[in-house]
Amino acid sequence: MDGPSQMALEDLGMFRSIPNCVVFYPSDGVSCERAVELSANYKDMAYIRATRGNTPIIYKNDEPFAIGKAKVMVQTHKYFQVC
User: Fold this and answer.
1) Three-state secondary structure along the chain?
2) What is the pLDDT of residues 36-75, one digit of tens each?
3) Residue 83 has pLDDT above 50, yes or no
4) Which among 28, 29, 26 is positioned nearest to 67, based on CA atoms?
5) Fewer CB atoms inside 10 A, N or C side of the chain?
């Protein structure tokens, strides 16, 4: 939906460089709603980067979200120890 001209990541880097600024990039409507809620209750600056596309809902409405916590939906890499 968002073409290559809209995929620049400078905004994420810029807002991450601001002390105490929280950056959200929600993956669906549920996580976007929680990002707005968390941002509204955060004492410092918060930035939400949303996608315009019609994304599928992947979280249940009661899924807990917290600032500073990530959710791994699918792990695609296996780590190997090199001897």
Assistant:
1) CCCHHHCCCHHHHHHHCCCCCEEECCCCHHHHHHHHHHHHCCCCCEEECCCCCCCCCCCCCCCCCCCCCCCCCCCCCCCCCCC
2) 999 999 999 999 998 877 889 999 999 999 999 988 877 6
3) no
4) 26
5) C
